[in-house]
């Protein structure tokens, strides 16, 4: 018994005539009759009563009709779902994101992707940049959004957004003259810094021979902004995080210093050929 025989049997069962079923199947009557006989021989039962006016189902034929319809429906669903998965139209994608990726995801293209392909499921894992790179190396996630600077061998990448650092300045510390500030201006205020950039900041301070007061160091850029909002010091964070998290009690001052620019990147293992679903996700950025 095979799917083709089941299709032929269902066509005859629904049409009530072998001739009519053959016309619907665009085939001659003798090959159709042969296939039906072969199906009955394989199963060892009679499926059809054949008369000069047409055909009717035996009890065994009635039972097979129900099973045949279910089997063909299941085959069609399996075919559709497997093809969808292979074409990136369905499946589960594990995506790592950092806290400071605010504003980069989800974007309009990604929203369009999930709207057009509702069977795509995205599982998010939040961690810092190096935690996500470690997850990629262990194949625990498929792709990640991370922030420079970082070292990660054997990673393919796509640049998403480059931005300057900004100071989130509580009003009581807001004595800066211009809309933007220089690194040396930071020597006069208590700083709240995101530990991710601590070594970069400290290297710059040493180069410029200044010794600012680091009032607080934290593991999340959003936490740095929250502490600035609470008037605890001036937070130094990526501009997009500053714009998303600051409140009316603070001002945002871009910092004019190119080495402190940072870039969000989409990264995935370069030795892995992206699946169709992963490639659609990459193309959405």
From TrEMBL:
Signal peptide: none annotated. Belongs to the LysR transcriptional regulatory family. One of its GO terms (molecular function) is DNA-binding transcription factor activity. Residues 1-58 form the HTH lysR-type domain. It holds the Pfam family LysR_substrate. It comes from Levilactobacillus acidifarinae DSM 19394 = JCM 15949. It comes from the Bacteria. This is Fhu operon transcription regulator. The keyword RNA-binding does not apply. InterPro entries: LysR_HTH_N, LysR_subst-bd, WH-like_DNA-bd_sf, WH_DNA-bd_sf. Keywords: DNA-binding, Transcription, Transcription regulation. GO terms for cellular component: protein-DNA complex.
